[in-house]
Amino acid sequence: MLLTHPNVKPKPFVKWAGGKRQLINILLSNVPSSFNRYFEPFVGGGALLFELQPSKATISDINEELINAYSVIKDNVEELISSLKKHKNTPEYYYFIRSLNPKVLTPVERASRFIYLNKTCFNGLYRENSKGQFNVPFGRYKNPKICDEENLRAVSRFLNSIEITILNCDYKKTCELAKSGDFIYFDPPYHPISKTASFTKYNRNDFSEKDQIELSEIFRELDKKGCYVMLSNSNTDFIKKLYAGYKIQEISANRFINCKANKRKKLNVEVLITNY
Ligand SMILES: C[S@@+](CC[C@H](N)C(=O)[O-])C[C@H]1O[C@@H](n2cnc3c(N)ncnc32)[C@H](O)[C@@H]1O
To answer: Across residues 241-258, what is the average pLDDT?
Structure first.
């Protein structure tokens, strides 16, 4: 079922809010031992996808720039690498690239702009203003790795070595494709622990409590269909109530509890919910 690669192991090619690398071993140990296709409808940086390396996968995200980048890495990685090598890490150049309208660029230029901004912007955040324009300031990093050739090629090889469907759509559409025996991993924008503690705004559409309720209904439908379903979210009473009756594990993760980087603490801030 799982493919192994003799080459470099692929890893997320963007820094992404909610990235799962810290919890990857816990996630891996909770994956069902066998399943048909792998679905990741909120793929983001795809940490579990790259770690698990399933042989059949459907990934999707509502973020158009991100999904375009996955497709370009799969189909046109060498052109992308050449384009990434041309970027400069200066504020003037950054704000010029940021000001470009991605919709008028070619898919390669668009992916190149997206990865460049991700590597050089402040904190690697993805944030848009009300008009849908990326609005994160320049990050002032000394030597950001704008073009990680080795990893981009590894990601490309991996995406070409499996049967994969890459979609830019709402997670509900992706879930309609799942059938009995498939494994779905949901890593949605988290329910905020407090109004200011969490970052759930990835684009113009907030993920509200109503969205969390709808997602839990879809989780139940997939369960009834005979799918294996796993979901990450924050450890709040609201979330635990929504998934009552399923296996809920509390997971500790390092989290900033203070604006100072050295004030980190292990907190039971997340839950991992499975129907198996
Ligand atoms: C918590 S992040 C996923 C992080 C990812 N697992 C990783 O390792 O980087 C949530 C993702 O959901 C996407 N998203 C938000 N609302 C969505 C929706 N309605 N349908 C599909 N994707 C959505 C965001 O663009 C974001 O990439």
So the answer is: 84
Dihedral of CA 146/102/39/187: which sign? positive
Is residue 3 domain-resident? no
User: Which atom from ligand 1 is nearest to the alpha carbon of 170?
Assistant: 20
Nearest to 31 by CA among 182, 191, 142, 224: 182
Q: What is the CATH number of the domain that holds 113?
A: 1.10.1020.10
Is 98 in the same domain as 48? no
CB of 58 within 6 A of ligand 1: the answer is no
pLDDT digits (tens, 9 = 90+) for 133-158: 899 999 999 999 999 999 999 999 99
Nearest protein Cα to ligand 1, atom 25:
63
Residue of 21, 25, 42, 114 with the most ligand 1 atoms within 8 Å of its CB, for mutation:
42
Contact 266, 242 (CB under 8 A): no
Distance 186 CA to ligand 1 centre (A): 9
Is 48 among the domain residues? yes
Host domain of residue 202: 21-63+162-274
* pTM recorded for the entire structure: 0.91
Residues 118 and 168 in one domain: no
Q: What's the token pair of residue 154? A: 């590894």
